[in-house]
Amino acid sequence: MTVAYWIIAGLLGLFYLYAGGKKIVQSKERLRPMMGWVDTVPMPMVRLIGVLEVLGAAGLVLPPLTGILPGLALAAAIGFAVLQVLATGLHLSRGEVRETGLNVTLIVLAAAESWLATIWL
After folding, report:
1. pLDDT of 41-53, one tens digit each?
2. What is the pLDDT, as a whole number, of residue 1?
3. How many contiguous H segments (helices) and E segments (strands) does the chain have?
4. Measured on CA atoms in the order 76, 58, 17, 46, is the torsion positive or negative?
5. For the chain, which has fewer Cβ within 10 Å, the N-terminal or C-terminal residue?
6. How far is CA 13 from CA 8, 38, 89, in A?
7. How far apart are CA 35 and CA 39, in angstroms?
8. Which residues make Cβ contacts (< 8 Å) with residue 64, sequence separation at least 6?
9. What pLDDT band is residue 38 in, cutting at 50, 70 and 90?
10. Using CA atoms, how far apart are residues 38 and 73, in angstroms rounded to an integer?
11. Which residues contact 34 (CB under 8 A, 6 or more apart)?
C-alpha cells in the first residue's frame, strides 16, 4: 500500500505542480491553446485554481513525508477529486465531451489516493 500511495502521489503531484504552475505564471493568451476554458473563467479564478493545485500537490507529499498532519494528504486527494468533478462539469457545459477523458482519469487517481490515504496514513 505504501508503494502504491507514493506512486500515485508522485504522478498526481507532478501533474498538478506543472498544471498549477502554468496557471499561476502564464498569461491567458499562453494558456488558451491548452486550456480553452480560460476564456470563460476570470483570470483571478484561473490563478486561484493554479495556487490550489500547487498547494494540493504539496499536500499529497509533504505531510506523509514529514509525519506532520498526515491527514492533510487525504484532504488534498479529496480536493483534487472535487476539482476534477467540477472541471468535468465545465467541459460538458462547453460541449467539450472529448476533453473529459483526462478529468475522469484524474478523478479515478484522486479517489484511489483518497482510499490509500485512509488505509496507509
Report:
1. 999 999 999 999 9
2. 84
3. 5, 0
4. positive
5. N
6. 8, 22, 23
7. 9
8. 5, 9, 70, 73, 117, 120, 121
9. very high
10. 28
11. 22
